[in-house]
Amino acid sequence: LARADRPELVIASSTYPADIWPARRIARLAGARLAFEVHDLWPLTPMLLGGMSRWHPFILLMQAAEDYAYRHADTVISLLPNAAAHMAARGMAPHKLHVVPNGVDPDEWQGRLAPL
């Protein structure tokens, strides 16, 4: 599939961090760039909010996936503007991060709407 369709970009998402491994393989087979999209910090979130131990097998697997993603993705895209230090501490080169804020600029919504 990767060789037949030849995508230019493969995107892995933090929704399920373990998808980074097949995503990287697909990207390599296709000669594509690999992006890791982060909207949740795994496994930090289940540890802090769910009280899971850092030594739980699930947490260890998710941590390995997150670290791998930060090290091997060509670019990291996130909605989280304050996560750069965490990502760098987990192995991401700071130049890889591109923050895309989630929200609207109220100034863009002032005044009349342009006609369709």
Automatic annotation (TrEMBL):
Residues 3-103 form the Glycosyltransferase subfamily 4-like N-terminal domain. The keyword Cell membrane does not apply. Keywords: Transferase. SUPFAM superfamilies: UDP-Glycosyltransferase/glycogen phosphorylase (SSF53756). InterPro entries: Glyco_trans_4-like_N. Signal peptide: none annotated. One of its GO terms (molecular function) is glycosyltransferase activity. It holds the Pfam family Glyco_trans_4_4. This is Glycosyltransferase.
